[in-house]
Specification:
This protein is of the alpha/beta class and about 375 residues long. It has a single domain, classed as TIM Barrel. Helices cover about 35% and strands about 15% of the residues. The chain has an eight-stranded parallel barrel with strand order 6-7-8-9-10-11-12-13, surrounded by five helices. Strands 1-2 form a two-stranded antiparallel ribbon. It has a two-stranded antiparallel ribbon with strand order 3-16. Strand 1 and strand 2 form a beta hairpin. It starts with a strand and ends in a 6-residue tail after the last helix.
């Protein structure tokens, strides 16, 4: 398996969203009659889309609106909303910083201690707004923050880091015991990020309720540049979905996989679902919402690292209200608006009545899929995000 890259060394080919296409089906379905809902721990959600736990993307207000629109949004408990009583002034500093100073300023801002009372306050705020409450922390604070989140009334708890495994070796601190964490938690536990078949199986064996798939593909993440880590998202999703299906056959327990990062258009989302994902997690597309706290800017969760930042602040602009990004109408031809409409139309075109059926769609390796016959579009910079 794989190709020789040197004497005695092989590498496996891996594929991202731009490398593949979906083959149309022998049967087609009216897009309004397909079911795009998905289930997480007995709760069904109208759309298989989650807003990522990033401070430029999710605030309590956006989480409430995302819930109203049928999706989920994850509030980052490591972020400014749990560090500052009034985050608006902090957001002003981040978004007004020069390109050269942005990372240094963000590092200083995230040096402020996290306040447990603010965690309670933000969770209560989302609950009062009627939205499902999903919050996240890094593994080092997971046990403490999970208990706080649970007591405050959160519905789901996410443990998220650059790379998460069931076996983390450390002598300077005590690694989180995911099996114990899950056992002591009464709310569903989502864990990420991972990209390999073996790691997924081991995490599923710990009892986690869903997995986030993706290392380094996000628009504001620089882990691939800084660390050289990552697996393109189509291959990462397909490998993880294979682990999910094997685990389900072995145990009868279905653990959803959620492709996290690397998607900017409706077509990317459709390819992620067709590769085997049950849902997707998106950052930059929602950082462009009018309701997003980043005001047209987006920065990675690892940007504030005090010693080795693995993220950056990027300008994404403001495209329109969150509802328009999800449901349209679209006023651009680049696939960045009406993401739900894109999923429905794609499912109808491949003959998939549900997301589970979309996962069985034929995939083809198609390096020319975005350039074939597009000479005028490319010359005029049309048909792609800009």
């Amino acid at each position: 398996m794989g190709m020789w890259v040197g004497r005695g060394r092989k590498a496996r080919a891996a594929y991202g969203f731009d490398d593949i296409a979906l083959a149309p089906g022998a049967v087609t379905i009216n897009p309004t009659e397909v079911d795009i809902s998905w289930e997480l721990c007995g709760r069904r959600f109208q759309i298989p889309i989650i807003a990522a736990a990033m401070d430029g993307v999710v605030s309590p207000a956006l989480a409430i609106e995302m819930g109203r629109l049928g999706g989920l949004a994850v509030l980052n408990l490591e972020g400014i909303f749990s560090r500052y009583e009034n985050p608006e002034d902090v957001l002003d500093r981040i978004t007004s910083a020069s390109l050269e100073e942005a990372t240094r300023i963000i590092q200083g801002i995230y040096g402020e201690p996290i306040k447990e009372e603010l965690i309670h306050q933000r969770i209560t705020e989302i609950k009062k707004g009627g939205g499902p409450v999903v919050v996240s922390s890094i593994p080092q604070r997971a046990e403490r923050f999970a208990k706080i989140a649970e007591d405050a009334g959160a519905d789901f708890f996410v443990v998220q880091s650059t790379v998460t495994t069931a076996r983390h070796i450390a002598t300077e601190y005590r690694p989180v015991d995911l099996r114990k964490l899950k056992k002591n938690l009464s709310i569903p536990l989502v864990v990420g990020n991972t990209v390999t078949y073996e790691a997924c199986l081991e995490l599923m064996d710990c009892g986690v309720d869903a997995l986030l798939i993706g290392v380094g593909p996000g628009a504001a993440c620089t882990s691939r540049e800084v660390l050289g880590l990552g697996v393109p998202q189509v291959t990462a999703t397909a490998d993880s979905a294979a682990a999910r299906d094997f685990y389900y056959k072995r145990t009868g327990r279905y653990v959803p996989v959620i492709t996290d990062g690397g998607m900017t258009t409706g077509g990317d989302i459709c390819k992620a679902l067709a590769s085997g994902a049950d849902a997707v997690m998106i950052g930059s597309a929602f950082a462009r919402a009018q309701e997003a706290p980043g005001r047209g800017y987006h920065w990675g969760m690892a940007t504030p690292h005090s010693n080795l930042p693995r993220g950056t602040r990027i300008r994404v602009g403001v495209a329109g209200p969150l509802e328009q990004i999800l449901y349209g109408p679209a006023f651009t031809e680049d696939g960045t608006l009406n993401l739900v409409g894109a999923i429905r139309t794609c499912m109808g075109s491949v003959g998939a009545a549900s997301v589970r059926e979309l996962q069985q769609t034929e995939l083809i390796i198609a390096p020319s899929i975005k350039t074939e016959g597009k000479v005028f579009q490319r010359a005029q910079k049309l048909g792609s995000p800009r």
